[in-house]
Amino acid sequence: MAQKSRKILTAGGTVLCAALIGFLMQQNAAREARQVSPRQAVIQQAVQQPEAVTDVQDHAVTRAVGLSLAAASVELSQPGRLPAPALEQVSPFPVKGEVLPETPLDPTEPQLGCAIQAVAEPAPMASAKLSVSAPCYGNQRVTVHHSGLIFTETTDDAGNLSVTVPVLSADAVFVVALQNGRGAVATTLVEDLNQIARVAVQWSGAAGLQLHAREFGAAYGDTGHVWADTAAKGYGQVVRLGEPGTLAPQIAEIYSFPASDSPVSGTIALSLEAEVAATNCGRDISAQSIELRGDGTLGTHDLVLSIPDCSAAGDFLVLNNLIEDLKIAAK
Predict the structure, then answer these.
(1) N or C: less crowded end of the chain, CB within 10 Å?
(2) Domains parsed from the chain with CATH numbers
């Protein structure tokens, strides 16, 4: 009887397993069908638990528990639209009498009416009159570049600057630059440059240098001793460019002689001099000379001057051989 009972249970277990497999296959097919649908998803899980038994030699009955969860489709509401602005009363053009808001000031951008302009025009003695207008840059440092010549000036309260520059090129080009990088360019044609003999010396800082010309054997203080002092008299002239009172100034001195109209032949002795002072004593001063040759080309030479120590303050250092003398033929 017990053997028959075990056979019946075994058969029943086999039927139960077959039914469970069929049930799972149906559930899987139904799940796949629901997963294809865009509106509903079905999650199915099968859990098998062993039935507790009292006899290890007896049969084991496996019971399947199916758990099916159906997720209902969720209806999402459409987002609301913002109300359209009323544009019927907005005009794309400013209304007469309407005050527009001011544009915030940007220190890196120029304001209206702040354009920088530079104009150059020919002047006597193979020079050019350079005029700079910078309305928004009053009392500002200005650096002028011309054919290797560099000097610094300062605009007045209204942002204007006017300076006469002995040119080093007939097709004179001037580049004017302010401290913030803005600037302008001016050009002019100087036709009488070929009639002038010209030498320039330039330096940086408080070097205290002076360019002196002694024409045709003139002694110091006599007529023909020409330098930047306005009281000096001679055929030629020395023009100083640059404002020495500014921070790190660039200074230049240019000697010009009207060679085409010289009544005398001879030599013009050129020297570079410096008064020993607290601002330059015990230092090596760097400078550069620029010579305008007869064929219109420029020759440059770098110069180094060793200033005596401060115990020699008040003395003058005279350097005669740094700049080549000018040879002038009578016309």
Answers:
(1) N
(2) 113-193 (2.60.40.10), 196-331 (no CATH)
